[in-house]
What we know:
mainly alpha, 8 helices
Amino acid sequence: MFTGSVGMLEFLLYMFFSVLETSAMFLLAFRVFKIDLYIIEIIFASLIMAFISFVLRHDYGLILTDVVIQYLLTFCFFWLLFRIHIFYAAIMTGLAYLSYMLLQSTCYLIMNFTGFYSLNFLYPTMGVNSLQIVSALTTLLIAYYIRKQRKGFDFVPDKQNKKIRIQSHEFILFALTLPCVVIVILMINLSEHYSGYFFLMPLSYGALLYSYLYLSYKKDRSENEHIIS
């Protein structure tokens, strides 16, 4: 498995930072939709995703394939491991990815502008790992704030066998989920070949995320009004 110049230290560093990022993304999604945390399961899912990502990127060089696989794994873990209804698992996956990609692309712009992303005096990937730490910590702070302020949405059931009633707002949210991974891939390609247009990444993610949050708010409010009446 570990061939060429890929050593055990590089593998461990990749696993650590990937698990940190993925765990933060899962945690944010659960906090946004007010679902109880499953810490052990989150770490387990993050370890599997990190290992698959390492193999795809370092052994086969399939970066874009890794993006698609990671997106599908996130959906599958929401659905099959955390037992979220398949319809809402797709919605949570889209929101989790858009939120994290928005935060990370914004952090990258700031770190690149200030020169922190170019730091490599300790080891070659120090800038990348610093970006991962900043992105994950920012995500965790936002998740903590959501929890502390009792923000978030209530309309996602945390049990698969619970009877649900899917309405128009949810269908639109589900439709927004479908192009998410495509947009992520397009933005990655754009940033790699035309770095001057990297600012379009947070703008694109932000626009889609705003649609997610607006529709989620409308759905949540309609549910509350229905309960009150």
